[in-house]
Specification:
With 335 residues, the protein is of the alpha+beta class. The chain folds into four domains: 119 residues, Nucleotidyltransferase, domain 5, CATH 3.30.420.40; 33 residues, no CATH class; 94 residues, Nucleotidyltransferase, domain 5; 64 residues, ATPase, nucleotide binding domain (Nucleotidyltransferase, domain 5, 2-Layer Sandwich), CATH 3.30.420. 38% of the residues lie in helices and 24% in strands. It has a six-stranded mixed β-sheet. The chain has a five-stranded mixed β-sheet with strand order 11-10-9-15-16, sandwiched between helices. A three-stranded antiparallel β-sheet has the order 5-4-6. Helix 3 packs across helix 4 and helix 6 packs across helix 7. The two termini are 21 Å apart. The structure holds adenosine-5'-triphosphate and magnesium ion. The site of magnesium ion (MG) has 7 residues, from loops.
């Protein structure tokens, strides 16, 4: 409808990105862009650029770009172009052309540095009229009404971001970021599988899917049978013990980062913070993680650890609520 403003919340993630709009659209797309490798691939695919699932299904015929991945030089031409194409595609999902203006709250991966932030603005120019950039934990806390006093632990793909939230925009001192997150877990599991089954032919994508389906950190070792190739020959093997072992490895690392965030907080707030620890991000889907995390950090006193619902959409949903609540002065115009 003309004459109207559309609000969007955008979670640009290392692995997947989500957009939520004030018109009720919510879409998640894997943060990957494919370009046909050669003219044969171009003719066969019939398009110049592929996104998300579509790119993954045709990955052998494409050069793949993950423009938000950790360690990606964001000023590299190809990745910058991929980022721009990806963001345009993501925003197209909410039909921005039907509105006069689009105001967006954006969360980008915490490893995207300041210079990259100006790239982020360049990427969004022409798509969005005004933006506000916030962190993932803050957007999550805002969306679930927990900004008064909480610790949000976003276990993503590229990083785990741990932030204390107490009623205002958090500063850099209120957040700790560690590199152990979903991608790291995949590498741990991959390594364990290759050690146990010598010659196993597995990819990161295979391992990630197994982890997403079977991850757990509590109880007895389970049997998890998966199919893989060993030197081209099909084998069905049990990786249940390896999933448990790899998932457990992240617990003390995240645990000690949480303790640090508690210990450096105003002492009067520490008891409340300890009892409102919220796990989010895809990694919070590890079965049993809240209880095991609570055990891990129980030496600092009484603690309460919970997981958000719908972790994959939580950040974008929170960013959208924030977008609608903030006065125009909070936005930076980018047209
Ligand atoms: N049930 C599950 N158990 C364990 N891990 C899971 C599960 N579901 C998703 N994940 C993992 O969560 C990660 C994706 O989470 P999320 O979408 O929060 O990350 P992201 O926003 O793309 O990354 P980042 O925030 O680091 O930029 C992936 O590593 C994925 O494999
Ligand atoms: Mg994320």
């Amino acid at each position: 409808m003309m004459g109207e403003r559309l609000y969007v919340g955008i979670d640009l993630g290392t692995y997947q990105s989500t957009i939520a709009s004030s018109a009720g659209v919510m879409t998640t797309i894997e943060t990957v862009v494919g370009r046909p490798k050669d003219p044969v691939a171009r003719n066969f695919l019939g398009r110049d650029v592929l996104f998300g699932d579509d790119a993954m299904k045709n990955k052998l015929a494409c050069n793949l770009y993950r423009p938000m991945a950790a360690g990606v030089a964001q000023d590299d031409e190809a990745n910058l172009a991929a980022a721009k194409a990806f963001v345009t595609h993501l925003i197209d999902a909410v039909d921005p052309e039907e509105y006069d203006e689009v105001f967006g709250v954006i969360c980008s991966p915490s490893h995207v540095s300041f210079t990259d932030k100006s790239n982020l603005v360049a990427t969004l120019r022409g798509q969005v009229n005004a933006i506000m950039v916030v962190t993932e934990p803050f957007a999550t806390a805002y969306g679930i009404g927990e900004i008064a006093c909480s610790i949000v632990v976003d276990i993503g793909a590229g990083t785990t971001d741990i932030a204390r939230i107490y009623g205002t925009f958090p500063t850099d001192e209120d957040q700790v970021t560690i590199l152990e997150a979903g991608d790291w877990l995949d590498l741990q599991l991959m390594d364990l599988i290759c050690k146990k089954y010598t010659g196993a032919q597995i990819t990161k994508d295979m391992v990630r899917k197994w982890k997403e389906e079977f991850s757990y950190v509590t109880g007895d070792v389970r049997e998890v049978m998966v199919e893989l190739s060993v030197e081209g020959k099909k084998q069905v093997v049990d990786i249940g013990d390896l999933i448990l072992e790899s998932c457990k490895r992240i617990i003390p690392l995240v645990g000690s980062a949480i303790k640090k965030i508690v210990a450096t907080a105003d002492p009067e707030y520490q008891p409340i913070l300890r009892n409102n620890i919220i796990l989010s991000g895809g990694g919070s889907g590890i079965e049993g993680i809240a209880d095991v995390m609570a055990d891990e950090i129980s030496d600092i006193g009484d603690v309460t650890v919970t997981c958000v619902e719908d972790p994959i959409e939580r950040v974008a949903a929170g960013a959208l609520v924030l977008a609608q609540d903030m006065p125009d002065e909070q936005y930076t115009s980018i047209v």
